[in-house]
Structure formats: C-alpha cells, structure tokens
Amino acid sequence: MSATPAAHAPDKPVLQGIVFDMDGTVTMPCIDFTVMRARCGVTTGDILDVINAYPAAEKAAAYNAIAEMEDEALVNMKLMPGAKELCAMLDNACVPRGLITRNVMRSVTYLHEQHIVHAGLAPFSPAVSRECRFEYKPSPEALLHICSTWGIPPQQAVMLGDSIKDDIVSGNRAGAVTILIDYNGMNGYRQETLIGERRPTHVVHSLGELQVLLTTQYTLQPPPNPHAAVMPMSLASEVA
Known about the structure:
Elements: E1 14-15, E2 17-20, H1 33-40, H2 47-52, H3 56-75, H4 83-92, E3 97-100, H5 105-116, E4 127-128, H6 141-150, E5 157-161, H7 164-174, E6 177-181, E7 202-204, H8 207-217, E8 219-220, H9 233-239
Parallel strand pairs: 1-8, 2-3, 2-5, 3-4, 5-6, 6-7
Helix pairs in contact: 4-8
C-alpha cells in the first residue's frame, strides 16, 4: 500500500524526510553535559574528539563515565512534549523520520522500546548512534547516508536538533533545511544572531510549533524509496 503524494503548492518548498537528534529533541534533556565534561577531564573542545585522543586507559575510563551517565539518563527518559503527535503526523503522511545521535545504540533501543513503539509508533529509521561507522556530528556523513537511503536530495530533508555546534552545523554542511529547537526559549537563541554554518533555517520553541511550521510553510511528500521510510504501524503490517 503506497501513499498518494500531496499536491505541491508552487510557493512551498518540498520536504521528503525529517532527521531528528535524540537528547533534548525527541526526549527531554536529562544529561548534564557540564558534569559529563568534568568527569571526563575535558575543559575545552569537542568531548568525543578530546577523549578519543587520550591514552588507552584514560580513554576507557572516560567512556565508562559517559556510559554511567547515559545509563542513569535512561531511568529519567521522557519524550519531549509534542513528540508523539509530530511523529504520528509524519507517519500518516508517509514522510520518513530518521535519527542521528551522539549517544549509544542501547539508549536508542530503550527509546524505541519504552517510548516510541509503546506509543503505537514505528521506530526511527535509519537510526545512527556514535557507535556506527559514520563520523559523528557535526560531520554530515550520517545525514547524507540517510538521505541517500531515502533517495532524496539533502535540500529536501530536515536536520532537527537542539545543538548548534552539532545538529545545525551538520545539517548546514549537508545542505539540508536546519531547524534548531530551543525548548521554551530557555537559551534565548534567535536566528538573526547566529552566523555562518551555525545559522539555522528556523528556530522553534516546541515540537508543536515545529509541526505548524512544517505543515504551513512546506509541502510534505513521501520519498522515492517508500520502503526505506517509516510508515504507520498499520501500513507496515499490511506490506510486511
């Protein structure tokens, strides 16, 4: 069973896939990254880059500290308000939703099993963690891979996340539409104050606001590779 593409309004750009960050985007932020950096002895620079340059014993100890904090975060994991509704809207439109996180696959699996599938939604697919073979964000490599999987140009994909230096830079390097979520405006980000590859296409303060943005300013269409897309659970069972 396939979806009929929506009529393309000539004044609205087409979007055929949405790629989500996880922590602070799909889920409420519950990891204190300042504490994480302190526990790993990282004062400046990208935490993963710095740790990967450590001698073997220090590197293992730092990753153990990160793993402890990520495991603790699972207990407190909650979906971002509006996440279920946004995912359901995209699924009903047969617009795929992928996920790229600097977290580990164990956390992604927990998200899927305890929150996404539990809510009657299909998992994010593809879902890429830092353990995958791709360079982690801000590299655009994983995002470009997902676009290729869906058969769409990156210009018709969204990279959505709460990190300017990782999510927005990654999306801009790929050539995607970039959307920065600043939940409830807690960081006071404004598009006009951000420059270069750190400047997002849009800034939103909630996933509900994002849903309105997507449906009013863009035309949402299924990608050329429908079986690479996330489908509503009912449709997925029909074509399995």
